[in-house]
Amino acid sequence: MSKYWSHITKRIEPYVPGEQPRSTSVIKLNTNENPYPPSPKVLDAIRQHINEDLKLYPSPTADDLKQAIAKYFNVNEKQVFVGNGSDEVLAFSFLAFFNPGRDILFPDITYSFYPVYANLYGLNYREISLTEDFTIPVEQFYDAPGGVIFPNPNAPTGIALTLESIERILKHNREKVVIVDEAYIDFGGDTAVSLIPKYENLLIIQTLSKSRSLAGMRIGFALGNEQLIEGLERIKNSFNSYTLDRLSLAAGKVAIEDVDYFNETREKIMATRERVAKELKNLSFHVLDSKANFLFIRHDTVPSKHIYEKLKEQGIYVRYFKKMRIDQFIRVTIGTETEMDSFIQAVKSIVQN
Amino acid sequence: MSKYWSHITKRIEPYVPGEQPRSTSVIKLNTNENPYPPSPKVLDAIRQHINEDLKLYPSPTADDLKQAIAKYFNVNEKQVFVGNGSDEVLAFSFLAFFNPGRDILFPDITYSFYPVYANLYGLNYREISLTEDFTIPVEQFYDAPGGVIFPNPNAPTGIALTLESIERILKHNREKVVIVDEAYIDFGGDTAVSLIPKYENLLIIQTLSKSRSLAGMRIGFALGNEQLIEGLERIKNSFNSYTLDRLSLAAGKVAIEDVDYFNETREKIMATRERVAKELKNLSFHVLDSKANFLFIRHDTVPSKHIYEKLKEQGIYVRYFKKMRIDQFIRVTIGTETEMDSFIQAVKSIVQN
């Protein structure tokens, strides 16, 4: 604590991201990155932008990237907001749409950055307990005092809500913003984009970090009614005129446009996920039904913390959350086939000893 | 106005950056970019990082970049914070060190983003009038209720404070944070870095956008006492785990390390500035004494708005501020020798007609 810190700085409890080990020999299944490289077209596009124009500011409005996103989702360009990773887009959204004194609702087991944002801005929130089987109890999100946010699929469970459930939440919160955080939507869930014309209170947030293999470039975006997007622009333009650099703008555009590569890699990941889930079940793991690029698993007899530590000793990083109800689980990002073979082998030797 | 906007979203007045014309044929002297390209070593470093690792998150702690900055300034790595342009570092600083209800002091004529940040966070501020000759009245920054921020050199005047003046402001605000925004320090001012060991309330903010020709890559940083840096880290880690992407981290490191290129280009800019200032004086311009990469000028008889508009017609962009006391000036970024020759020719024909 320093006497120079503001009340806010003293109050907050910062988020702690998963480890980024420096060693390249580890198998990194701990931060839900994509195991496949970015599209070769994306790497080419970046190369083409390495020139003296880097001395100039990027476009403050990021029109080219917004246009590509709008075209892909068949929405209007004014329904698109872009930011420095979906984390920044989320941070802006909390400030843009939520007011202190009125509880925001989100699940008790979810992306652990949500309470951090709320604390940063002095916003109140209420955590809604997931059901016994770790699904979102839809009715409990009705008539939220301040607004709603949840990931679909949820993290770290990987379980997805149906569009019909999401629509019920939207219908019962017409006066409040409902944020659907679709960071993992491309691995099997149904995006809520089709609901935008019907629900002006719907904000969808996505990222290029997962399904487009661009975690290293920090590109996130939001889709929603023009009024909501304008609100985000107001906040962004009161914070930083240029949140995406020239190379991220170039990379993002081509990543969205290269649909074939995107489909090919995400399908590979989904296939690997199903294969690994089956093998884990054969090893007496309880495996939640995941529509994300990770699996949330618990062994019948061996404690998760033990598995987590033993795996780490062998250079395999997974994520363990020391938190009530989920401290018996580990979250395992889906890697390449080869990486998952090593993972399965390692896990087998741990649980069978 | 939308019913979905938070009170803050409704209240704020976003910052408006200088125009970024798409045409490449214009002479762009309006946003204080560097006319020289980034160091060739920087471009090489970026190229080397275009590979499949872009699928992985960047380092959340940005250690390599921090180390390079620490080494250059001969400070400890824990005295360095990095962010997505100095705008983001400024935005974090307002939140980290200032509290609502206590006036922050800054000059009335200064970087117009300061009141925007204050409004974003509901902070109070008092604008201190510059003296008749546009210098900062040092004594009026003593005993600031909430803290102090000013650019050195100031923008858009370009006038620098002496280190002795800065030290007086620091001495008279021991309990409050004093932020010295050194965005333009490398063009002739004296950095306050040497005062860090003596003043734990001093935060210095710099950018690679100007003197390192990297506006397109969004890299800013802060230097100060470890407590202040820790405060900034707390805010950043409650907002976005990874604010700099992999390519910006690589570019920033090499840009700081290539001291020869840095010195060569900034010296060229300073020489051009002095030459242009002299020629403008010969054309009956009043030219403020600039230690920045721009000149703030007023003609004896021809209105600035007219000059601004006529220049624009000829494809030469400068910046005009429609604001009391300075609406008789234009701000002209120092370009290459050739660009400034074109500028002088154009201005000559405007003021002599």
Automatic annotation (TrEMBL), chains A, B:
<dbReference type="InterPro" id="IPR015421">
    <property type="entry name" value="PyrdxlP-dep_Trfase_major"/>
</dbReference>
<keyword id="KW-0028">Amino-acid biosynthesis</keyword>
<feature type="domain" description="Aminotransferase class I/classII large">
    <location>
        <begin position="25"/>
        <end position="346"/>
    </location>
</feature>
<dbReference type="GO" id="GO:0004400">
    <property type="term" value="F:histidinol-phosphate transaminase activity"/>
</dbReference>
<keyword id="KW-0032">Aminotransferase</keyword>
<keyword id="KW-0808">Transferase</keyword>
<dbReference type="InterPro" id="IPR050106">
    <property type="entry name" value="HistidinolP_aminotransfase"/>
</dbReference>
<dbReference type="InterPro" id="IPR005861">
    <property type="entry name" value="HisP_aminotrans"/>
</dbReference>
<feature type="modified residue" description="N6-(pyridoxal phosphate)lysine">
    <location>
        <position position="210"/>
    </location>
</feature>
<keyword id="KW-0663">Pyridoxal phosphate</keyword>
<dbReference type="InterPro" id="IPR015422">
    <property type="entry name" value="PyrdxlP-dep_Trfase_small"/>
</dbReference>
<comment type="similarity">
    <text>Belongs to the class-II pyridoxal-phosphate-dependent aminotransferase family. Histidinol-phosphate aminotransferase subfamily.</text>
</comment>
<dbReference type="InterPro" id="IPR015424">
    <property type="entry name" value="PyrdxlP-dep_Trfase"/>
</dbReference>
<dbReference type="InterPro" id="IPR004839">
    <property type="entry name" value="Aminotransferase_I/II_large"/>
</dbReference>
<dbReference type="Pfam" id="PF00155">
    <property type="entry name" value="Aminotran_1_2"/>
</dbReference>
<comment type="pathway">
    <text>Amino-acid biosynthesis; L-histidine biosynthesis; L-histidine from 5-phospho-alpha-D-ribose 1-diphosphate: step 7/9.</text>
</comment>
<dbReference type="InterPro" id="IPR001917">
    <property type="entry name" value="Aminotrans_II_pyridoxalP_BS"/>
</dbReference>
<comment type="subunit">
    <text>Homodimer.</text>
</comment>
<protein>
    <recommendedName>
        <fullName>Histidinol-phosphate aminotransferase</fullName>
        <ecNumber>2.6.1.9</ecNumber>
    </recommendedName>
</protein>
<keyword id="KW-0368">Histidine biosynthesis</keyword>
